[in-house]
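Input (structure):
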C-alpha cells in the first residue's frame, strides 16, 4: 500500500502517514547534514569547501577548494555565491523537491551561524 494514497476507494490521503514520512525524511537528512558539519562548526572556510558533499547535483554549486579560500575577500565572494545558490526562496523558485528545500534551509542556516560566530574576518 502506498502511504500517500487513500486507504479506501475514496482516495483520501491519510495525513498521519504524510506527517510520518515527512518526519522520517527530516531525520535522515538531519543525520547527513550533521555528519557533514561535524568538526566544522563555526569554520566557514571548511563548510564552503565541502558544500558539494551535502548539496544535490542539480543545485548548480561548483566545488571550491580550501586553498581558494585563503583571503577574507575570497571567503566573502564564495559565501555570497553559496547563499544565492541555496537561499530557501531561490531553491523554491527553481522547483526543488521537499528534500532539497530542507537541505537548503539547514545548510543556509549553518552558514549564517558560522558567519555570526565570527570565525571569519568579514562582515557579510
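Output (sequence):
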Amino acid at each position: 500500500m502506498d502511504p500517500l494514497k487513500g486507504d479506501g476507494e475514496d482516495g483520501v490521503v491519510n495525513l498521519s502517514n504524510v506527517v510520518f514520512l515527512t518526519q522520517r525524511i527530516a531525520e535522515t537528512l538531519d543525520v547527513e547534514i550533521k555528519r557533514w558539519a561535524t568538526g566544522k562548526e563555526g569554520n566557514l572556510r571548511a563548510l564552503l569547501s565541502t558544500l558539494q558533499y551535502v548539496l544535490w547535483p542539480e543545485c548548480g554549486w561548483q566545488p571550491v577548494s580550501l586553498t581558494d579560500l585563503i583571503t577574507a575577500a575570497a571567503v566573502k565572494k564564495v559565501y555570497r555565491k553559496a547563499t544565492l545558490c541555496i537561499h530557501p526562496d531561490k531553491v523554491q523558485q527553481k522547483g526543488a523537491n521537499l528534500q532539497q528545500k530542507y537541505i537548503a534551509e539547514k545548510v543556509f542556516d549553518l552558514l549564517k551561524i558560522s558567519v555570526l560566530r565570527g570565525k571569519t574576518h568579514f562582515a557579510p
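Notes: The chain has a mean pLDDT of 85. The first helix runs from residue 15 to 37.
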